Amino acid sequence: MEYPFQNLYEILAFHAKREPKAPSIFTQKRRLSYEMLKKKVDTLAHFLEVSDIKKGDFVAIFMQNSKEFVISLFAITKIGAIAVPINTFLKSEEVAYILNDCNAKMVMASAEQKEMIEPLWESTSIKKVVWEGEYESLDNKNIRFDEIFRIFKSHDSRSFPSIDDLAVIIYTSGTTGNPKGAMLSYRNIMHNCKAIGELTSFSSKDRFIVYLPMFHAFTLTVTVIMPIYYGASFVLVRKIMPFGNILKQILFRRVTMFVGVPDVYNALSRAKLPWYFMLFQRIRYFVSGAAPLSEATIERFTSKFKRAKLLEGYGLSECSPVVSVNPPWKQKLLSVGTPIPGVEVKIVDENMMEVPAGEIGEIIVRGDNVMQGYLNRPTATDETIINGWLLTGDLGYLDEDGFLFIVDRKKDLIISKGINIYPREIEEVINSFSGVASSAVVGIPDEKSSEIPVAFVEVEEDSVVDISDLRAYLKKRLANFKLPREIHLVDELPKNATGKVLKRILKEKLKIGVF
Fold first, then answer.
1. What are the two backbone dihedrals, phi and then psi, of residue 415, each rounded to the nearest 5 degrees?
2. Mean pLDDT, 10 residues at a time, the chain of 515 residues
3. Which one-letter DSSP state was computed for residue 112?
4. What are the angstrom distances between the C-alpha of 219 and each of 21, 40, 93, 213, 224?
5. Is 460 exposed, middle or buried (0-12, 13-18, 19+ CB in 10 A)?
6. What is the separation of C-alpha 20 from the centre of its chain, rounded to a whole number of angstroms?
7. What's the pLDDT score for residue 166?
8. DSSP β-bridge partners for residue 232
9. Torsions phi, psi of 176, nearest 5?
10. What string of DSSP letters covers 15-77?
11. In the CATH scheme, what is the code of domain 33-183?
12. How far apart are CA 83 and CA 58, in angstroms?
């Protein structure tokens, strides 16, 4: 696949020259043109160079959604340094681990995160923090963005990165141990932008809304970088709550592209939305990623929003992140679509031999979207990427038409008396029961069966779920060996920033007898 740009900055410079007054970012109070965005990026890049940040250095971004996040991303990569977005839900020790793992020299941070950042001077290699927001303790180590934009002038950098240079490190969620840094090049990211655009006919006239955390690979590529790749614009919302503000911005800013995760679509499918929102919203595509949508959510949502397409996709941080998406012209219920252009997907057995259509195996991926490897982890890289194929750790199958269906995570597979049990299948049935918001099924050790399934059920607000009724419901729809031996009702399932259930935490709680 051919790419018209070598790096992210070239994309920005191209559109700033072609349509300087066109909007790039809308915030609550103002809009930022491409010309102004480029000027701010150039100014911050100048500051970075003066601060001795060089090509190949790592600069962390630990920030709430903001225009400064975007400016930081483009300025860091403009000079060939590597941007490291960090999950703002992490604790101080977890942030320190990431900063030390990549040896970050500088952090771009929101003032809201000061309690996390300030203790890190002693335990990490950071030499300077650039603050977004009302941070008052300024000295030679701490400076605000507004001070940089006031003091420094924009100028041209000495050199620019090439397409196969490292651009961004995305740290995995660390559900199975310490997080690993997925090394993404400019080629990786631009492949995703170009391939998705070809499928969906995105143009400069489209407008996205960004409310999911920008540090996540899905949000970063699809809703931040991709709009700029096409000279489009996006509406920046700092936080997801109150959700009414997001609906207001969709109408007021005439949003055409909505990207969300299953929790959001589940809520929208059940919500009583104002009639004027349903009548006047202009959304062309609803895109879902990060975790599978349930069949019940899909059916409710598509019956409610008839004018727009709901496109479910599949991806992972190691693939920049998109692997497949349901094409607008042909969709299959519960499928995550076909591989995006330039990407190959195979289903293989434990010996890396391809299996026939319809047979379940591990999903492996090859293409320009596959990461360069894991930072500082050559062994983990060699175990994950074999002959150019990335082993995803996900189980699934391809049908006769090449549509991909996700069955489960390989590590979540439950083996009871030698029989494979796929938790997602059980969760689908539980989620269809009245009053259930979502569920998670995990396997726990058992002397007789090796493993048994245990279910955790999150109940909808103002609803009641009777466990006896739920058991009877499941018994009619699932084979006996698939029935959960225990069912626990919970107020809320533990989830990461994009709504993916953290099953490791549930297993740990079972182990120590919390339930």
1. -115, 110
2. 92 96 93 97 96 96 96 97 93 90 96 88 92 86 94 80 97 72 97 91 92 93 96 93 89 94 87 90 90 83 89 93 91 91 96 95 97 96 96 94 90 82 89 91 82 92 91 91 92 81 85 71
3. G
4. 25, 22, 25, 7, 7
5. middle
6. 30
7. 98
8. none
9. -120, 30
10. HHHHSTTSEEEE-SS-EEEHHHHHHHHHHHHHHHHHTT--TT-EEEEE--SSHHHHHHHHHHH
11. 3.40.50.980
12. 6
Token pair for 201: 């006919």
- Give 125-184 pLDDT, tens digit per residue: 999 999 999 888 788 899 999 999 999 988 777 678 999 999 999 998 654 467 899 999
Which residue carries 């630990």 as its tokens?
62
Question: Which DSSP letter does residue 221 get?
Answer: I
Residue that the structure tokens 């009302």 belong to: 134
Say which CATH architecture domain 422-511 belongs to.
2-Layer Sandwich (3.30)
Token pair belonging to 512: 């120590």
pLDDT of residue 364: 97
Domain residue ranges in the chain: 33-183, 422-511
Which one, of 323, 353, 327, lies nearest residue 339 by Cα? Answer: 323
Tokens representing 252? 């007021």
Residue reference for tokens 């439950």: 414
Give kind and range of the element (H or E) at residue 394: strand 389-398
Q: Give the CA radius of gyration of the chain.
A: 23
256 with 235: CB under 8 angstroms?
A: no
pLDDT tens per residue across span 18-71: 999 999 999 988 999 999 999 999 999 999 999 999 999 999 999 999 999 999
Measuring CA to CA, which residue among 459, 456, 483 is closest to residue 471?
Answer: 483
The beta-carbon contacts of 90-97 under 8 Å, at least 24 apart in sequence, are: 90/116, 91/116, 92/116, 92/119, 92/120, 94/174, 94/179, 95/62, 95/120, 96/120, 96/123, 96/124, 97/178, 97/179
- Please give the model's pTM, rounded to 2 decimal places: 0.86
